[in-house]
Design brief:
Helices cover 39% and strands 15% of the residues. By secondary structure, the protein is of the alpha/beta class. Strands 5, 6, 7, 8 and 9 form a 5-stranded mixed sheet that branches. A 4-stranded parallel sheet has the order 1-4-3-2. A 3-stranded antiparallel sheet has the order 10-12-11. Helix 4 links the parallel strand 3 and strand 4. Helix 7 packs across helix 8.
Length: 324
């Protein structure tokens, strides 16, 4: 096929990967239309994808439609152009939008089978976190569980720092990374947010580490490593879904944010049958619970809030992305 779709859950990094791929190979990136363009048909925006030989990359299909009576016209026209042209397309789509559009427009029958990036298990998380740690500076750190002293993240040695799973430091480790992998559904951005939340004490300055040299321990390559103590999984303060507030209005706001990959507040007010005051009340409540976040009035589910919100919507029978 001349078009290939890549589908990924929130915070999996699929749009960023497609963007980097396009920039490295010189393919033209197509940014998503504004909400106003979507609601008025988007003829000017569609003009940029008229027939020629230049391959295109569209990282955010989820930002090309709205769940609104005028919100699917532009996407229908875009799909007609994609499949009537001979040019190559790479398209990224959020998994929640893919589930919705598969019901509303049967996009799963017009695109070829989507590529879905494999979830991160605890071994992949270990190697990734080790690589991030070795790139962070001159000081070596080891991550231990504060109650047992077991390694949560052993120091990367040998080929492991460059991603070779066959080499590395063999140590008595806890099951902490397995808990992160399961809780985050293997989604890297969510696993990273949980990992940051878990750090209880960090040596942040080289001077502090030098003053605490007696607390350091040797590692396989002879360097000294300084401990960072990680809270046990049972002691982590992770967001929970407020079941006492799980009314239809609150769930509707959350589901609308998820199937669009986040929304500007002015657009959200057009898509849900609630007053602006009621919408903001729900959003501020969810923000205080760390379940959603905003960036200059653009609202989306937070990394830490995604797992409990997904479970809540699934348990209430809402359409979910099928990747959990």
């Amino acid at each position: 096929s001349s078009a290939q779709i890549f589908v990924g859950p929130p915070y999996h990094g699929t749009p960023e990967i497609l963007t980097g791929w396009a920039q490295a190979r010189g393919w033209r990136l197509v940014s998503a239309p504004s909400p106003e363009m979507i609601l008025t048909g988007g003829e000017e925006w569609l003009a940029q994808v008229e027939e020629d030989d230049e391959p295109l990359v569209l990282p955010h299909l989820e930002h090309c439609y709205l769940r609104h009576y005028n919100g699917l016209t532009l996407l229908r026209r875009l799909l007609d152009r994609i499949f009537s042209q001979s040019r190559r397309w790479l398209v990224g789509c959020d998994s929640w939008a893919w589930a919705y559009l598969s019901k509303a427009l049967k996009v799963d029958t017009v695109f070829p089978t989507p590529f879905i990036l494999e979830a991160f298990d605890h071994e992949r998380l270990k190697i990734w976190f080790q690589q991030l740690e070795t790139e962070s500076g001159e000081i070596n750190f080891v991550f231990r569980q504060s109650d047992s002293g077991k390694y949560v993240l052993p120091p990367a040695t040998g080929e492991e720092a460059s991603g070779d799973r066959s080499q590395g430091f063999i140590a008595d480790t806890s099951g902490f990374l397995k808990n992160i992998a399961a809780y985050s559904l293997g989604i890297p951005g969510i696993a990273w947010a949980v990992w940051r939340r878990s750090l209880a004490a960090v040596v942040t300055a080289k001077e502090d580490a030098e003053e605490s040299d007696q607390k350091a321990e040797p590692v396989e390559d002879g360097d000294r490593a300084y401990p960072i103590w990680v809270k046990p999984w049972s002691q982590l303060n992770l967001p929970e879904f407020p079941s006492q507030r799980a009314g239809l209005e609150l769930l509707l706001v959350l589901h609308t944010l998820l199937i669009h990959g986040g929304l500007w507040i002015r657009v959200l007010q057009e898509l849900v049958p609630l007053s602006p005051t009621e919408i903001m009340e729900h959003l501020y409540f969810l923000e205080a619970a760390e379940l959603v976040k905003s960036d200059q009035e653009f609202w989306r589910v937070s990394p830490l809030g995604y797992p409990p919100l997904r479970r809540a919507l699934w348990s209430e029978g809402y359409l979910t992305d099928g990747l959990g």
